[in-house]
Amino acid sequence: MTTAVVDVPHLDIGGTQKVSFATLVKVELRKSYDTRASFWLLATIGIVVLLVEAIVLIVSIAQDGSVQFGDFVGAAAFCTSVLLPVLGIMLVTSEWSQRTAMVTFALEPRRSLIMWAKLVVGILLTLVTALGATVLGAFMNLLFAVLHGNADWTFGWNFFGGFVIAQSLAMIGGFALATLLLNTPAAIVLFFVYKWVVPGIFAVASANIGWFDSASQWVDFQRAQGPLYDLTLNTGKEWAYLLVSGLIWLVVPFVLGVWRILRAEVK
Amino acid sequence: MIKVESLTRKYGAFTAVDDVSFVCQPGRVTGFLGPNGAGKTTTMRVMVGLTPPTSGRVTIGGHLYHDIPNPGRHVGVLLDASAQHAGRTGREILTLGAQTMGLPESRVDEMLELVSLDQTEAKRRLRNYSLGMKQRLGIAHALLGDPSVLILDEPANGLDPAGIRWMRGLLKGYADRGGTVLLSSHLLHEVEQIADEMILIGRGKIVAEGTKDELLAGADHKTSFVTALDNEQLTKVLHDRGVTFTPAGSGLRVDAPPVDLGRLSVEHGIVLTDLRSAEGGLEELFLTLTADTQREGVLA
């Protein structure tokens, strides 16, 4: 009969390496496209970027107007700023909606590493999207030159830098809220409330309540990102607005979410 | 190899696991048996770090699960065969596991073959799998890293009789090679034939543990089930001897130990086709022990 005082053999774990962070990133990257849902989300981002840039090209030619290299990318950026947060959300929530977190965290109990690996994957995919949109924009501009003559290669590298940072922040925004909520629909709804409804409320309140305008600058992350789009973030005050509002909308939900994931039971 | 020490897990006022201690030794299959909601799954979840204990601890080979590097290479875990992405193919699920553990893709093929999932089935998405196929895939996933410890929650659930026999052979062979196996079930007959040791749990507490023989040793055999070729002759003899009995199925339930009835049949030349102790079955012991926590520990 077995009792608690019986000694059990020692398990030799000396020869086993920990799972490397690079491996975790590789596996999380694979998970981001290995199901129909995740594959089509990525494909949709690509297709939308292509469509939007093609429309800009067609409209520019049809109206006999002029178009700059940067216009193609700018148009695509508007759409990806909607889709990339959804990608950030799905990277996190699919583990809980599909209950794979049980397997993921059994194979790697250092749960925070998994969350960081997911964040790295989100940023990698955001960079690929930004790069893809830019390369595609160059191609469209070349087409414009061929079909219409005199292409304008004005791009504004400031704008590109701002574009990459803003897109990354949008993705991380979705990611952070998803980490807090661990639920796909709730995270998507809350993200779009935060992105479109909250700035509106702030604007209305600022117009009607005198003191609110200056106060809201500290919490309105969308507004604080304004100078970021063309990298004209110059004054210390603008930096402060960006950091404080970013702390509220990105860092706080992410830290609270990860804190809960680390402690909670994985069902 | 697995050592559970005074493990308690509470959910508010409800105590799911109540001061549970036991040990699983290498080379043996340990069956973890109890009705639904008895605390089996919670105990196993604590083992692999998915549920934090309220108090007490579980170590595997002397380590907390969290401290085992690349744990999939040491401990094979199957807690819920359905807890996988429904949109992934069986092969993809194993590939993700293999990549995390740093194993070559060939290992995936080996495991698919081991659990008899063919290439076509491996390409199907999990949502199109039967529960039995999910269990096979889950066992393949647990065995991927060639672990020395296996923790399986209800692995036979959904397997057909041939599948259960296959799993029994697989786990027996695994234990014979020195592996430690802990498997849970709420069905006695699944565990009875495969487990070397059994741990019976009811309402969060261990009510009995030991080998099958040890568990049965405490039962008193005062009643028997007996069936004779000629039941009428048997009833007549029993009647003459003043032994009370009631009809039960195709035979009789007799208030006498099997040994007396065996003797009787020899004396009177009655051919018996079935003779066994009526209360000796593990089933009854299991039900008695787990139905009423007031009687816990009587046979432990």
Distance between the termini of chain A: 33 Å
Strand order of the largest sheet of chain B: 5-6-7-3-8-9
Strand content of chain A: under 5%
- What's the total number of strands of chain A? 0
Helix run count of chain B: 11
Q: What is the 3D shape of chain A?
A: globular
Low-confidence stretches of chain A: none
Q: Give the helix tally of chain A.
A: 10
Average pLDDT metric of chain A: 89
Q: From N to C, what is the helix and strand string of chain A?
A: HHHHHHHHHH
Report the major sheet of chain B. Answer: 6 strands, mixed
SSE pattern of chain B: EEEHEEHHHHEHEHEEHEHEEHEH
Ordered list of secondary-structure elements with their pairings:
The complex is a heterodimer of chains A (267) and B (300).
Chain A: H1 21-31, H2 36-62, H3 69-97, H4 101-107, H5 111-148, H6 157-181, H7 184-208, H8 212-216, H9 221-224, H10 236-263
Helix pairs in contact in A: 1-5, 2-3, 2-5, 3-5, 3-6, 3-7, 5-6, 6-7, 6-10
Chain B: E1 2-11, E2 14-24, E3 29-33, H1 40-47, E4 55-60, E5 75-78, H2 90-101, H3 105-114, H4 119-122, H5 131-143, E6 149-152, H6 161-176, E7 180-185, H7 188-192, E8 197-202, E9 205-210, H8 212-217, E10 224-228, H9 231-241, E11 245-248, E12 251-254, H10 258-268, E13 272-277, H11 282-291
